[in-house]
Amino acid sequence: MAPPVNAPGATSGGGPGGSWPGAVPRAAAPEAPTPEARLEELRLRPPANRVSRSAVGMWTLGAVVAWLVPLVAVCVWVVADADHRSWQAPIAVCLAVAAVAHVLVMPRWRYRVHRWEVTPQAVYTQSGWFRQDRRLAAISRVQTVDSKRGPLEQMFGLGTVTVTTASAAGPLEISGLRAGVVAQLVADLSRATARDRGDAT
Amino acid sequence: MSEPVAGIAPAVQTAWRRTSPRMLLVHSIRALGQFLPVILVAVIFGRRDEGDQIPFVVASVAAPLVLGLVTWLTTRYRVGADRLEVRSGWFVRSVKAAPLDRLRSVDVTATVLHRVLGMAAVRIGTAADEPVEIDGLSAADARELGRAVLAARSGGDVADDEVGGAREGSGRGVPLAVFSPSWLRFAPLTVLGLVVLGSLAGFLAQFAWDAVWDGLRGAAAAVGARHPSWALMGAIAVLVVAVAQAVLAVGVYALRYGGYRLERDPRGDLHLQRGLLTRHATTWEAARLRGVVVSRPLLLRPLRGAHADVLASGGVLDQEGAGSTMLVPPAPLRTVLDVAGEVAHDEAAVCGVVRGHGRAATRRRYTRAVSWSVLLWGAVAVAGWQRGWWEGMWVVLGATAAGLLSVPLAYGRSRTLGHLLTSRHLVVSSGLFPQQRAAVRWSGVLGWAWQSTPFQRRLSLVTLQAFHSAPGGQVTALDVPEGVAVGIVAGADLDLIRPFLATPCGVGAAATDADGPPRSAGRRTSVSARVSAPDRRTPSGRSSRA
After folding, report:
1. Do B298 and B433 touch, CB atoms closer than 8 A?
2. Range in B130-134, B383-387, B494-498, B534-538 the model is least confident about
3. I want to staple B535 with a disulfide (CB 3.0 to 4.6 A). Which of B82, B144, B356, B461 is the partner?
4. A17, A130, A132 ranked by CB distance to B511: nearest
5. Taking the complete model, does pTM exceed 0.90, yes or no?
6. For B357-372, how does the pLDDT look when each residue is reduced to its tens digit (9 = 90+)?
7. Between residues 75 and 104 of chain B, which touch chain A (CB distance below 8 Å)?
8. CA of B1: how far to CAs of B97, B133, B367, in Å?
9. Interface test with A, best of B423, B441, B488, B536 (most A CBs within 10 A)
10. Measured between alpha carbons, how far apart are the two ends of chain A, in Å?
11. Per-residue CA distances from B246 to A145, B296, B541 (Å)
């Protein structure tokens, strides 16, 4: 019979099931040895809350503004430069099609994907549209809670909450929230993180 | 670094201390050294109008001296009961106060000048802000500062032989690794020589291009070719470069890593020293260690070499870039694995068999490589169609060669991809240039991310990221099957993820299933019947099936 998959791990750790249900509270837990993950059909459910519906309008407007620059550049090129007509037609058409598709599809897709959930123990977010990103962080690891309202967001009465940990790479962002929810969330998270004093690294 | 000073009542006012006045000598010698090439050029080439530049040269030498004097007069530091304060500057006065429990690592550097004059520069890393730097301490003061910082943080007196940094090989701890001259054989296979050659090449291109050209012609004539072709000159040039970079690399390696010594003291802190001329000494506190990364660059593989870095939060960023996270320089693989396993307290994390990510992930390595080749070929085809094929023959051949080369590269990448969950670490293995094996402690993971593109979602794969507070910020596992990715986090931190799992019955079954072997995602087969199980890989790249 073949040896268990990670024999070295099993011999150096403690018994299986060492610190599972009924685990020691995280703040006090030393590195309790636990076994291999049980690789069942585990799946994550999406977070419970959606962002505000008016975020769709905000993202649409943002995309339109962003596409204006290349579209105007191409128009100027078409008007000013008559030498490359054979290139200009396909490029202009491709650009226009891409712009329309992006502006129509992205905001709605993004609205379906963006979700968030904050419990007393963790922050769980899902964001993106083409490339989707689920992030999970424990409240005890949160270092700062920031909120930000750019010009577009102020127009639509929305805001963004950014939760950072001590890692250079891992902020959790929730964008498209209503301003009131942003303020509430920042207050709640600041209170929750103040409870867990410590290094958070 | 501007912590609010009010509110932290200074308990005992220790005296402000000064840096050493011998630092002024260092400044003056350095300033002269900077202008030595200009002076030499003026003398050698004897340009008359250089005479006009003498006041300029004098002023440029005097300015750093004056600055150094002002710096020395205005810089003071002291270690209080709970913080380290450094005051400096005259025009712009700055006071840096760092709470002692935020200090992460101590790095003591002594260049040749410093050592001749008995001095050192200390750089103390903090959690989030810039490091605190104090240059020009006498060696005794540097030791004293390190001792005071460590003592204040550990809340007690530190025996003198446990001081971090400047002490040389006093046997205060268990030596984990010591430099051996046989390590020099790895030097020509690193980029050390090429880096030096690169900087020399700039100089050569400016001043000595003709000499280089004549030299190449002469070498070609020596071989016997009267009118050497480009290919011959190119081959000679490549040969010369290879030999030169090998020699330079050996020299740089010896200077940079000679005298390398890694020790662990009884409290678990790591002390590293290296360098023949410029002596570096770094201390990492045990509680700040988050893991290790073992890298096997492609060039070192024939000689079975590797190097290792440490993942430590709040590392001190060296000017050289690579200095402060390096744990073991390019060295024999066995040594590196032993040291990394010792540092991580986890042999299995460093040497254990890594489990692959399945067939879908393997296929993706190939499709990604091939799709890039197809794109390249498409661009070449369009260009060729426009311009005529014969002109672009070399380009076409080049694109074809690149396309063919991508297949073995994809094969290599698919074989090195894998992960492992041990009792303390999450280990991720990936890559080819270099092949890396990163082990991060579960307790050091600050957050998790599961990322996916539509192509990955179609295959039920995600890219799992574990965020940590060491430089780099994250450990990434590519193309992990979705269930496995969630299972990894569940294995590392079940309480965190349990409320967000979609299948609570899976968790319940796992909790009661105390002793069964781990199962692959979605298939309830036992480990022994691994008919269609993912490959497993040993660190040396050989695959083994149970």
Report:
1. yes
2. B534-538
3. B356
4. A17
5. no
6. 989 999 999 998 888 8
7. 101
8. 7, 12, 48
9. B423
10. 43
11. 51, 19, 27
